[in-house]
Design goal:
By secondary structure, the chain is of the alpha+beta class. Helices cover 23% and strands 16% of the residues.
Length: 44
């Protein structure tokens, strides 16, 4: 039987900035999730 641990990530933002990424690093998270990033263009 394989044991898997819990993966911690930070998310729920659309544009990362220094404060968010610094906070994630302080928490020791290994991933970030960005929701609805601002994409170039006019159509969605």
């Amino acid at each position: 039987m394989t044991t898997t641990g819990m993966r911690v990530a930070i998310g729920q933002f659309s544009e990362p900035d220094d404060d968010i990424l610094r906070f994630a690093a302080q928490l020791g998270v290994r991933g970030v999730q960005m929701n609805s990033p601002h994409l170039p263009g006019t159509e969605r």
